[in-house]
Amino acid sequence: MITGGIDSSQIQSMIAQLKAHATRPGLTPPVIQTEPAAVPKADFSDALKKSLDAVNASQVDADGMSKKFAMGDDSVSLSDVMIAQQKASINFQATLQVRNKLVSAYHDIMNMQV
């Protein structure tokens, strides 16, 4: 007998396969979680603080390297000083652009009509 395009013998064989699989020793049914796993939530203020701390650290590092080079420390080369200063400058410019975007978004939200 064909039911909805599937032969009843195929249905019976599928049921038999499911029963055979269920009776295998050592198999446990899958555990279904009803609650989502506890994932630490990223806090915006923490992410912003970490970013600003990283920018500050790169600026402090560049300043320290330039002072060492100016005092004649042979462990610091001019190219290292210039690279550190450029990294600090790029980090600062990126932070400045993010700040500008945030201020612009704030103004857009404040100017919305409710």
Automatic annotation (TrEMBL):
Source superkingdom: Bacteria
Record keyword Glycoprotein present: no
Chief location bin: other
GO molecular function: cytoskeletal motor activity; structural molecule activity
Annotated keywords: Bacterial flagellum, Cell projection, Cilium, Flagellum
PANTHER family: FLAGELLAR HOOK-BASAL BODY COMPLEX PROTEIN FLIE (PTHR34653:SF1), PTHR34653
Family: Belongs to the FliE family.
The protein's name: Flagellar hook-basal body complex protein FliE
